Amino acid sequence: MTCTVQHFGSISGGKDSQAVLCKMVERIDRKGLEAFGNLAPRFLAADNGHENPITLDHIAYLDDWLRKRVGLHIEIVSANDVPGLTDEAAFARKRAMLREEWSKEKRRTRHKGACNSRRAAWRAGTIMKAEWIAGCDCPVLVSPPVPDNLIERALELLHPTGIPFLDMAMLHGRFPGTKTRFCTEQTKLIPMMHRKRPLLDAGLSVIDWIGERADESPARAKKPPIQLVRHPSGARQVLYRPIFRWSAADAFAISERHGLRHNPLYTMGMSRVGCSTCIMVRKRELRMWAMRFPAEVDRVREWERLVSLVSRRTAIAGTPASLLPAPTVPGDPADHGRATIDKAIEWSRTGRGGRNYDLFLDLEQREADEHGLFCDSEYGLCE
Ligand code: SF4
Question: Which residue intervals define the domain Phosphoadenosine phosphosulphate reductase in the entry (predicted)?
Answer without folding.
Answer: 206-279
